[in-house]
Fold this sequence. Notes:
Distance between the termini of chain A: 56 Å
Shape of chain A: elongated
Strand content of chain B: 25-35%
Largest sheet of chain A: 6 strands, mixed, barrel
Distance between the termini of chain B: 20 Å
Low-confidence stretches of chain A: 128-136, 391-396
Number of helices of chain B: 7
Largest interface: A-B, 27 and 29 residues
Helix content of chain A: 55-70%
Helix content of chain B: 25-40%
Oligomer: heterodimer
Largest sheet of chain B: 6 strands, mixed
Low-confidence stretches of chain B: none
Mean pLDDT of chain A: 79
Structural class of chain B: alpha/beta
Number of strands of chain B: 10
Order of helices and strands of chain A: HHHEEHEEHHEEEEHEEHEHHHHHHH
Strand order of the largest sheet of chain A: 3-4-8-5-7-6
Amino acid sequence: MPLLLLFYRLMVRPLFREPVRTSLTILAVALGVAVVLAIDLAGAAATGSFRSSMETLAGENDLEVRASGGVPESVVGTLATLPYSIRVSPRIEDYAVIAETKKSLPLIGLDLVAEGSVYAQRDAEKTGVSQIEGGSENVLEHLGDADSIWVGSSAGYKRGDHVELLINDRVRNYAVRGIYPDSNGNESAIVMDLAAAQQALAHYGRVDRILLKVPETPSLEDWQQRLRGVLPVGVEIRPQGTGTNENRRMLAAFRWNLRLLSYISLVVGAFLIYNTISVSVVRRRPEIGIVRGLGASRSVILSAFVGEAASFGLAGALIGLPLGRFMATGAVRLMAATVESLYVSSRPGTIELNVSSVLLALTIGVGVAVASAYSPAREASQVSPVEAMARGRREYDARVHKGRDLWLALVLGLAAAAASRAPAIAGKPLLGYLGAILLVVASALAMPAFVDALTSFSSNLLG
Amino acid sequence: MPILSLQDVSKDYLTDDQPVHALSGLSLNVEHGEFVALVGRSGCGKSTLLNLAGAMDFPTSGKVLLDGISTSSLNDSGLTQLRRERVGFIFQSFQLLHTLTVFENVELPLLLAGKHNPREVARDRLAWVELEGLGDRFPHQLSGGQMQRVAIARALIHSPSILLADEPTGNLDTTTGNVILELLRRLTREQNTATIMATHSLEAASLANTVVRLRDGKIEEVTRR
């Protein structure tokens, strides 16, 4: 308690006397934390929906047929008429926005006559009742209607409701013909007949993919080989989920990339903390001497300066939390657009600021601040009381450090150049990231000498 | 047993890579309640002797015994504790912390020692130096003499065995300086604290029980009254 009181009097209270310096340092940490948090939250939201209904509604299939720009509808006929006992499920996959709530849901177009009979038969075998509320006769009545949709139970609609959907930049009214249960962890989706989906999305003559259920023998590889022969050029057949896994890997790499780049903002904050604490140590050297002379141990001095940095980090993290949440809103749109255009059809999910986000922010803010401040804080703690009270010594040290730092900056700059040209490790440009960080560090180290040279040049110029 | 015993103490420094013999084979004993004045020209070793006596530095050779404890036998942590418990410092430029009030400056050694509620002791010490009622002021709101009184109160708050004063009147006018010296002499007597004062002033030295004249890091003469 006495030491906490001292910490407040000697370290915290003086911060309020220099509001500009204090605010700038805290703001730098806050921005660093906010950027990292925003990228993390936005990444989760932008790619999170990919782990949703597209796969869970795919059913029990073995192979999938895909093509860039969609699979020609004629392939469905080709596969269906082969003399094998295989189930062919063509699909259209996109997103629809409920006009009233602006909520986005996956839109899945299925061959409902074929799928319905398969599922009805399977479910009847399992439970003795149909999965679709209202009875199969009523369902079949409206299967061909272009305005018929079926929705998951969690969407909150009931049979007979009318919903306005924004699909492909057009708002149209649809009638809910049935509800399917989605309480098993699946995300709710809007299901419509294949033809209706093609019409709504203007995907005429093409489907997004065709799922195939093949008999257990021969092997999947044999079936793949056998069916590949009947497919036109540009259409590929692969085990179901291959694309999903590939997309997952690409999305993971995409998020990893962004996350690492967001750490650059932390490096800037870290250097500001380092400089702030270094300046604090230099300016307060006589004070350190007095306090050491009066009985402060080295660990007390070390803790005081590390604590000062931790205060900056904590304040920065607390400001960075809401700021990061706010920035994530903007970032998620940009990231979702990139994900959509480069990787996979997706839709932004909810941005969730949860306990792990708060812990991440606090760890980053306080951790970076403490790590950055450790070196100058340790230097302060190593000063003997006699040396600390001998003014002038520090200025000499600073001059020595400036030359040393310039050399160090040169070495780091060269290392950064070499690292940026190094090949990827395990498919990731790890050394490239290292190069970027080294460049930031080198710039920071070179800055005092650069400012000195600039000042000298300006003085000569102005006489 | 003397409160301070310097036995054949030497201290060497390196300044701009040149060795400087600040103290050479110096021996001195100081008893409880003794008021010692160190006199001599600048660079004769007065401040170095105070640093060694105050456990702020180690001798290059010889022994410094503070209350019977050899400072050379301690690590930095032990030295710090010794300083915190048994030594009080008064500096020429007062060395008050300008962001702290008078009360807070005086309380500093007790808080560093982990003592709770030091305010009453601080109030008491301020009464010793006749500064009651000024506890909430900041140093810049005080005169030079008042600042030195605050420094004396701070140096005495933990009832040290030895009080070290480095040119305590160096920044004060003669009248104020005399008042401070009289105060130091009175407190030394009343508290039975040993006081060692480095000074250029022969007038200040005349108030001491013992005058130690230094020259080139050695004791030239010791005068006891």
